[in-house]
What we know:
Shape: globular
Distance between the termini: 49 Å
Strand content: 5-15%
Number of helices: 10
Largest sheet: 9 strands, mixed
Amino acid sequence: MSGSPLPSAQPAPRGMDHALYDFEPLPARPALSFGTRRLAACLVLQLEHWELAPPEGSLRDPRFKGEFGTFAPEFRTWSSRAYGNRVGVWRILSLLDEFGFAPTVALGAAVVQTHPELVAEIVRRGWEVAVHGFSANRMISARMDEAEERAFIVACRDIVASACPAPLRGWLGQDHGLTPRTGALLREAGFAYTLDWPNDDQPYWQATGELPRGLVALPAPTELDDVQTIALRRIAPERFPGLVRDMLDGAAALPEGRVFSIGIHPWLFGAPHRIRYLRQTLELLRERSDVLLTTAGDIADRFIHCSKERPHVA
């Protein structure tokens, strides 16, 4: 048994081995509803800039590789992301305008610096903005110490706030990068909700403590995300509307209410041969009378409001 540690005599918190949030099995919770509907969904439009030469030591999601490997500088990956911000995003904006749908825009701070014309369009529409880190190749990770992570979060917040007049209440980490202290640092920086945790179908409190200082975790846009499904899992793009339909149908048959976020990236769904599948998804959402299509901030607010009267209930 040399090298194999013995089990600890101290029991771990129920259901997990950390204390970042309370463990609460779904069947033990009161039913979740949104007025006459039990399903709620938000569109999360993710605007990112890929730096051609990020600072030394920066960490990016290692799953993103070019067809011929990884190089420096990575013109192929950089060019794909640049296509989204130069071309693809305008197709998506037109489509959302046509449907009258207001997404939550996850805005990377580098986009404020590189594409002010795009940020101006978001602000003009009055869409909700959440902070999306800095760039597509600078993730939060354990390489940062606490001071570095705090400074990173605050700098990203302040850069985005300089271009967006409405208060910034939400955070979506680049590629969901985080550390055990990220939640506390987000609360410290004034954020009310995060979209980084795919471990639930409902909002919940992270490290609740006193309610005014709680951070609401909303279901992350992972299972219903264009990049996660099409680019990384190699699911055919024409299947995406069906995935959304199946998810909603399955949830509608369950006794507990559910929340979903749908991730959209201009460099992927903004391509002319894929935009039709985003259109089909929006048509599906428009036809669903059992789904409240709203913003991430609205879902968080509904949860917070009801939690003041009935803990853990939205």
